[in-house]
Protein 1
Amino acid sequence: MYKKISIALLTLLVPISVFAAQDDKKSTEQPPVPTEKSQNVMKYTSSSFTKPEKADGATIKQKNSFQGFEKAAENENLALYVNEETLAIKIENKKTKYVWNSGLDNPDQYRLNKTWEQMAQSAITVDYMDRRGKVKTESITTNDSRPRVKMNDKGFTASLYMNQSKLEFELNVELQENDLVVSIPENEIKENKYTKLISMRVYPFLGAVNKSDINGYMFIPDGSGALIRYEKNGTKADAPFTGSIYGNDEAFLKTKVKKEEEEKVTPVEEIKMPVFGTVHGVKQNGFLAVIEEGYTHGDILAYPSGVSTDFNWISSEFHFRKEYYQPTSKNMKGLNVYQKTKNPFGVKLRYMFLQEDDADYVGMAKAYQNHLSETKQLEKQDDQTGVRLEFLGGEVKEGLLWDSVLPMTKVTDIPGMTSELKKDIDDLFVVYKGWSEGGLTGTLPQKFPFESELGSSDDVKHTIDSLKKDNIPLYFYSDYTKAYDGASGYSGSKDVAKKISAETISHSEDKKTLYYLSPEKSLAIAKEDAKEFKEQGISNVAIDTSGYTLFSDFSGKKSSERNQTIKTYQKLFGTLNKEVGNVALYEPNTYLWNQTDRYLDIPMNASNYVFETDTVPFLQIVLKGYMPYYAPFSNFQSDSEDQMLRMIEYGAYPSYLLTKEASHLLAKTASSDVYTSEYSIWKDKILYQYENIKKSLGDVEGEEIISRNVPQTGIVEVGYSNGKVIVVNYTNATYKSNSIEVKPKDFAVTEGGESDETTRQ
């Protein structure tokens, strides 16, 4: 999608956003003549990279008090204790003897006001609306809402009546091997006639750390992944991290009036995995929390020390009613209101406790990988080191009287270019975009017939057959969410998704208006397209937008709450997989990972929020060995050398957006940001980059990442399940360690610490 290109035009490492800020750690007093070495090192100490771990690995000493707690359950791994008045819990890891607390033993020792102390000590805190429409907060300890607790073999069940809000819940907490599972069934959430539930936090202070009392960090699934370390200096941020799982729901966002002079900024990365975690002592103790129910209306919250309290704490928040802007006049005047009807869902969190070598972000990623594999959400795919070549076919060119199609790459041009590259590249695949009648932009949801300026149906079949002989899959690019204003194939009154405010869900893109199709219409179109794809001999499709866009639809009989949208999209991609063949998705969310054979445009960075201290490849560690994933286009990166090293470090394969014709022809089209794409210019660069990717990642095809170490700034060692270790040197100095020597801006592949002499020539 072309938003990726505009993002890449800025820089790989330093995105800008209204809500995201740089964290370069630049001193306000710059030395008069900084050396190249100092500049180089400073770059790799920024939050865009991962810092070395502290040398001090002293075991954390605890002073635990179990006063007021009863043992609820115990197994060979964990022991669970509960305070029956507050439902606060303590979980003892029997292997390490470490105790995790959901509250504070001595709250008077800390700087907490009454509201924060009540939340810290309570299992549940809610926001609710009273009969006067005022939003209030209540915790279990606010008005002495004493629960009724029943113990069982695995833990306990608590019936809870909140005295102030008159809300009722049932909380289930139980041990499952090395996990703690916390759940609140949907049918046990009951509201009072005069009060309405807005949001809920469950055990928000579990694992909270005061200031920098211990060595460790919080993990957030921002982009590829990010850490927030517990630091003495605290953060300069004045707001916490708040990330909507699977992105914001467009059905509740206020419609923006686009201004021509509005400056383009890089959007922050979206959350694609419903997880978060914390580490207490690296390689000592940690946990990964997986949100198994409620994620469609959930946020991940991370409060660094200095934001509201002195504590670092990370949790999830569930929104049973969302606030939205309701226009009341044609000039868009209106007011903010909350949903009248409660969103239908229950809450379920699984805390996976980690110890010793697994107690870091790598261990978290491996735990999540195992969980997804066991629950059939992630399945093994073929993984070969390769290249994605994305060819732009035709684009709309505006004229005085009528528009025409500008042919940039005819379908018959593709075999000639791929055959040249195939001589040196063992594995590559092609995505062909802009093939529909009318070109790339403005034709969706209509896809057929094929654009005549790019070739005939026979040309398409001939090209597919030609590439098959070279074992090159040809994927046809499409989208099942977007519908352009004025295009055919849908009804603007019946098939377009609507916001809760009754407005259509629409966007402005390159001076064109596009709408979101209702999920049911998307499914219907996919079923019809599947027949056409088969008739045309097409067996591979690459789908944009639909894999990472999750929204509610309030359009009458076709209304679709977010949970239902997921189910509809799963049917949609299931249909394409069954009726067409392979499906590659752009940035798919977790619930579609078992529906795609390739992950396209995988995030290679976090958002660089001011409180983020490190960027880590959490997403890549989860997927490596299970699914091939491809980086954003290499020909739109500002620092191609570092970008290639990052691909090697992250296990990602390169991608290029190419055209047969010169890219300057696109200057007055919707694809004007494609400023360098001509195949003849990029051919040698493609071969050079592939050669280096093959020398490194070719040794670990199909293998999983099992370790990642940063021995010093700008040096990363990545261990794989076959014993290979890839060492990446981002710096301008040679790195030496035992028998390993890695030149500046280079890499080496080693076997059990011994150099394989596999480096860039």
Protein 2
Amino acid sequence: MTQRRALHHVPAMKTVTEFPRKVVEFPDMGIVMPDGCRLSARVWMPEDAGDDPVPVILEHLPYRKRDGTIFRDQLTHPYFAGHGYASIRVDMRGNGDSEGLMDDEYSEQELQDACDVIAWAASQLWCNGNVGMMGISWGGFNCLQVAARQPPALKAVISICSTVDRYADDIHYKGGCLLIENFGWASTMLSYSSRPPDPLLAGDNRWRDLWLTRLENQTFLAPLWLKHQHRDAYWKRGSICEDFSAVKAAVLSIGGWHDGYRNTISHLATNIEAPVKGIVGPWIHKYPHYAAPKPAIGFLQEALRWWDRWLKGIDTGVEADPAYRAYVMDSVRPARWHPERSGRWVAEQEWPSSDIKTQTIELIPEGNRPAIVASPQSCGLAGGEYFPFTFGPELPGDQRPDDALSVCFDQPALTEAIDILGAPEVLIRAASDRRQANIAVRLCDVHPDGASELISYGVLNLTHRNSHEFPQALVPDETVSARIVLDQCAYRVPAGHRLRIAVSNAYWPMIWPSPEPARLDLSAATLMLPLRPLAKGDEISFLAPEGASPWATETVRPANSERHVDRDEKTGTVTLSITDDFGEVRDLAHGLANGSIARETWTIHPDDPLSASGKTHWTQTLSRNGWSVRTETSAEMRSDAQNFVVTARIEAYEGEILVFERDFEEKIPRSLV
């Protein structure tokens, strides 16, 4: 369930090789921070920028520009440079080819470094003084957080697959429930940050010292995140929803319906006072010029419209664009992967839109007996990844296996199609027989033959029903009211299909289970469904995707991805096993070969929430001309009724010689609320 580097996906796009301005590249431009730490930047800019200064576009990441994000960087940054920008891709301190150490995501040091890079860039003779910041995921998060700090030169932001709330809408605690991705992502970063700089850039006599210092100070972030189980000051810092008005830069927010961060676009379009526009397509966790499912869009042309307006002062018409542009997906047969989603683009000039009306559907008629929700702990295996990433079998599958383990409220077959656009909600009244209980609600499209496709879902830790900051334990058998907000969606349900609302109190391995099996008596449930007048066809359009010349590599080892669910008929345990071998490729320009393999197992017994465990094992390799390094990182998480227990290990090899090893283990008290 971790975020993994994509299997190399060759996009169907037009390759542009001739640009209005000739581009020069600097593979390792040093930017020295006020404390003396040297950050390494890969920079593309017009050859004549010294005579005709240009704005800057900054992407500030821990994901290694030399061999990590290089695939997408090659498509994107030279394109911007060719159209009159200095495009700067910085390795954050403690990662890639930069010096220093990183101790957490979105730290004060990280955000201050970004502000210092912006100030440095704006002061260069080749810059016109205006800076934009962009990014996806981590880079989408930090560009919003940096914008809230209002560095003077920062005029515009393009934030993709990001969040405004670090606690409730990131990979940590969704609805107050502990996301498995919290542990999974910590495991991923332990592996990502364990790799050394490239000796060709850092120097033959220096790279090893930088690497060993980095390894000796490596942080396993899972224990830190588990120590903040409520929405306290740790999570509020960096959550721009605390003060939307702090963002003064113009914001273009983009996301995908098959991504875990699909709510941010609506939050920003609703709350930002600065110029803001939103676009949501059918995509997974990718930049939309090479994303899937298709249709991809001409993101780079759309981005240039944004940059040209706010960084160059050119009237490109972006201010007249609809506030919210969304792709309404057609119903499809359930599958773990869709290369394409049919549908249509719709446009709302204002957001929230007065065109969207809420239909209220009573799921439990007054006077009916309560519905008993007591799901096996293995309910949820059809849910897919939190944010699908690999152009592979990570989407939600047919929901019928999970539906069979849930309480389902099926609606009559539709006599005419409906377009759902927005965030469905379910209002409940329920009593629990335990002090803590989770609830998961799924909205499904049920085909005439019974196939069940997931439209949207939401989860809630019922002790957080009134507040994520100050939870309240449940009183056993006492009825409480709660509101479960499902993720934003845009989906057409055709005539002849029916809606299903499936309710469970387990959703593995999306969320960590409650410490005890719980029973919920659901006495009332109401679905609030946001409906838009049926779209007749595309209401807006985008240019076709294009990009600069793709990354030139040769394949050393082909990629392969596997996913299995195994049920031990003797013990009853259920195990989800995932292996993503991302293969190994060699850069044809500088010769560095890099390879990566991620392995995960998620195990649980249907009757025992304390049987839950997650294990990860990552292998990373780098090599060139007889030089090679390898890191092996492994981690495990389990819990009892009182504590979470997390362990991890790093092993680092130069050639076949073990040069570093370190073990982590920590027990963190478990909040029952």
Protein 3
Amino acid sequence: MNVAYLVVPFVGGLIAMGLRLPPLVGFLAAGFTLNFMGYEETEALSVIADLGVTLLLFTIGLKLNVRTLLRKEVWGTATGHMIVSTAFMVGVLSLLKVIGFAALADADLRVLAILGFALSFSSTVFVVKVLEERGESRALYGRLAIGILIMQDIFAVVFITASTGELPSPWAFALFALVPLAPVMRRLLEHVGHGEMQILYGVVLALAAGYALFEFVGIKGDLGALIIGMLLAPHASAASMSRALFNMKELFLVGFFVSIGLADFPTWGTLGVASLLLVLIFAKAGLFVAIFAIFRLRRRTSFLGSLALTNYSEFGLIVAVLAGSNGWLTDDWLVTLSIAVALSFAVSAVLNRRSTQVYEKAMELLPDQDPAKLNPIDRPIGVGQAEAVVLGMGRVGRGAYDRLVEHYGLNVLGLDTDDERVVTLRDQGYTVIEADATDPDFWEKLTLADTVDIVILALPHHDSNVVALDQLRKLDYDGEIAAVVQHRDEIESIREHGADDVFHLYAGAGIALADGAAEAAGLELR
């Protein structure tokens, strides 16, 4: 492969980063630059692009929580927005055609519907990166946004599969055997460990058990990659595999974006239509706000969730590429959509970087909400008459909870992010609520009663405990705060952030173990 296919995208990504834009914008620009220089798409680049899309779908499946998708706030918003947004885009494009836009002169209803459908998606890659950079992927609006994105991705995969126009082989029914085989695949995931074997296992599952197997029975392989990922998702190591494949998937997706730019070179006409489409992302955002309001979510949740989704998607480009291969769209439209996607990333990056300021300005124009009428998942969180609160109800947190109740007679409330653990503990008689102490939404909604004298930080990660401490201080909490650390070098850091008492988990366990053994042996303290 000519080195220009590597150097130009790297320079393009570097320039985009320097402008504080997503590197994807630079990769698309690199494709156009290579096109202008006379380069064409190669077979190797095409293979890399296909691998990137397949691994993207597989990693989406790995993070798929079916229970999240079953929430009406997720599937209802995703479905309603797709239908209304597609219809709105078709209406606008039809109006432009009537007015006399040359680019739309030959567009029939099928072309307009495909364009509207492609423009209804928001970018999974972009939104996930924005949420992770801000540390709000666990916030309610972040979880809802990711759930909506996954639903949109499923819609796209269904379209991609159906667009082949061919009936699957009768052997396709044999794919149901993957469900009982899923525990075997998950068990093997435990044995491959981490590192290169985990990455290789993921690639084998995505490309062989997913893509190749589904293609063999006449079903689009991309859907197979997504389904195999979904079957692995319940395993605890699925998130680790997704992280391990992240860089490989991102690298291959560079090939996809470069190949889009190589399809054709932009003209003044395509730039004009793309700029017009860019303006329509604000109508798209307003529609999200309206649908969230129907589900009675807080203004903050609705606004920030909508702001994150205010962009066009790489999946829209995938749909457009497929439509182009079927002869439904011309290369001009592929170029137009790619420019619109790149511009939407640039605008969305600026908006989300200033989301707090934009939110505060917008809230001045919106009416107040009655907390009692809000959706139960988004109402203020009270601690009742609790005298102590334990953040993190794992083994350490549960031990602290038991000690405070049994030996000190306190009224204790536990908080944990794991909904299954919360249900189990409630069945055992614990007073526990599901909440994420690293979620800014949680702290904004939390109302600490004057009765709370003790807060125990037993979260599994040091950074999570630090976030919780900072939030407690913002609430002007002046009670006792005790925290658990796993490493000695974390003790000073956690004290600097406001912990009154710090317990070194392993050192404390070692001391207790030694004291127990010495006492059993009849030794006395010196």
